[in-house]
From TrEMBL:
Signal peptide: none
Domain of life: Bacteria
Keyword Oxidoreductase (UniProt): yes
Molecular-function annotations in GO: FAD binding; oxidoreductase activity
Domain FAD-binding PCMH-type stretches: 63-233
Protein name as catalogued: FAD-linked oxidoreductase
Length: 472
């Protein structure tokens, strides 16, 4: 549940400047200078003013990584030139939209980062469609769509990039009503390993479009823009219920019975931990409509919440409230200081008490449950490679870095593996975990063989390969 995500972030300190020698490639610095000269945007290399800021992603864990170049692309042609450069010199390359990869895969050590942040325009097209640059952050998307009276089902963290979110699936508070973000992809502009820009649609490349609808960021090539179908923006009732932490097991038991009986208009999630037993979400409709549904949940829990807030407002205001960003500021002085993993809840929990004990086994753990069902479950496998349509929901397990990264990963790994024994080995690729067992099957399920074939077709030499990539 995005509602409480801010509780696992903290302000980052200053990052010291680091020095690193660029990788040796034919032509050396001259080759890089020729690339710089041909870009409409900017190229930052080690030692350049601004390099130490340009190379950073969202998570401070990966601040030690030193790309040999960070290209701030101004247009699709810049992306094409970067891909051609990386292919010619056989150096690692990675695209970066919002930079929120949980494993830091958008910051490629001793390679070329293709930063898409300037490709961020949002244009409303006839029929309520929207053309959105791959570098747009969700706050930009929501503001532009709201101005035109439109809405897109997506996440609620304002600094997440639209590209990574959509390519991995895209769960959010409108998902049960309108589907995943990837379900709304009509077409994309795409630069493949051959360096050729192309339009990917059901008519031009149906296999690639299928793969891009949930096949994970970083695979196949670089998307430069999307065309999405959108919905008319409607009034939403945003709700938050806070229960005593002691009734965590009762909340889980009640929620998993209550949610499947709810109309598609209602989305809900839970925030669970030693000090948290919260339920929040939103309803596409009025507060008067959702309050009786919440009464039913409270009755099932058997304990009155210590806090109950229901706020009726527009889509943009709801996204702002869920993100706890009153004004969606252009710069957010918060960076990620935590590790995360996930599992899919493939069925109701048999023993909510045992789950509660597991999720509170380390007081620094915080787990976020996101609801599936509704429109998410009705998309056929032929339309999208997202493999988790039948799940009750997903659970993201997070922990701060107190005691160090190894301790934090051990703690979340213990929960991940126990949940895997209970619910199966599936996980959500947008919460990518570098230590996920059998990661390819976990993230892609039955779609994996076909995805591998698409990767071989469009990236036969593995230009876009990375540790958990389909081309490796």
């Amino acid at each position: 549940m995005e509602l409480d995500r801010r509780t696992i972030l903290r302000l980052a300190g200053a990052v010291p400047a680091l020095a690193a020698a660029p990788v040796a490639i034919p032509g050396g610095g001259g080759s890089w200078e020729r690339l710089r000269a041909h870009l409409a945007g900017e190229l930052f290399r080690p030692g350049d003013p601004g390099y130490d800021e340009a190379r950073l992603g969202f998570f401070s864990l990966y601040d030690h990584r030193m790309p040999d170049g960070v290209a701030i692309c101004a247009n699709e042609d810049d992306v094409r030139r970067c891909v051609e450069f990386a292919a010619r010199h056989r150096i690692p390359i990675a695209a970066r939209s919002g930079g929120h990869s949980y494993a830091g895969y958008s910051i490629v050590d001793k390679g070329l980062v293709v930063d898409l942040s300037r490709l961020s325009t949002v244009e409303i097209l006839p029929g309520g469609r929207a053309a959105i640059g791959a570098g747009a952050m969700l706050r930009q998307v929501y503001e532009a769509l709201a101005a035109a009276g439109r809405a897109l089902p997506a996440g609620s963290c304002p600094t997440v990039g639209i590209a990574g979110l959509a390519l991995g699936g895209g769960i959010g508070v409108l998902g049960r009503k309108y589907g995943l973000t990837c379900d709304r992809i009509e077409s994309v502009r795409f630069v493949g390993a051959d360096g050729e820009p192309r339009l990917v649609s059901a008519e031009t490349a149906p296999d690639l479009l299928w793969a891009l609808r949930g096949g994970g960021g970083g695979n196949f090539g670089i998307v430069t823009s999307f065309t999405f179908t959108t919905e008319a923006a409607r009034t939403l009732a945003n709700f938050e219920l806070t229960f005593p932490p002691a009734v965590l097991a009762d909340l889980v038991a009640a929620w998993q019975e209550w949610l499947p009986a709810m109309p598609d208009e209602l989305w809900s999630g839970m925030g669970l931990g030693s000090q948290a037993a919260n339920c929040g979400g939103c309803f596409v409709g009025s507060a008067a409509q959702v309050n009786p549904l919440l009464d039913d949940l409270v009755r099932r829990v058997g304990t009155q919440p210590t806090k109950r807030v229901v706020t009726e407002q527009g889509h943009l205001a709801t996204m702002r409230a869920l993100a706890e960003e009153v004004n969606f500021p252009a710069a957010v002085a918060v960076r990620g200081e935590y590790v995360s993993t996930s599992r899919m809840l493939t069925r109701p929990v048999r023993d909510p008490g045992a789950l509660a004990s597991l999720l509170t086994s380390d007081p620094r753990l915080y787990s976020i449950v996101d609801a599936y069902g509704g429109a998410i479950a009705r998309v056929p496998s032929s339309a999208s490679c997202f493999p988790h349509r039948s799940a009750l929901g997903s659970i993201q397990i997070t922990r701060g870095l107190d005691g160090g990264e190894a301790v934090a990963r051990q703690s979340i790994g213990r929960v991940r593996d126990e949940l895997g024994r209970e619910f199966g080995q599936a996980g959500y690729v947008n919460y990518i975990d570098p230590e996920m067992p059998d990661w390819a099957k976990a993230y892609y399920g039955d779609s994996l063989p076909r995805l591998r074939r698409v990767a071989r077709k469009y990236d036969p030499d593995g230009l876009f390969a990375f540790d958990q990539g389909l081309a490796r």
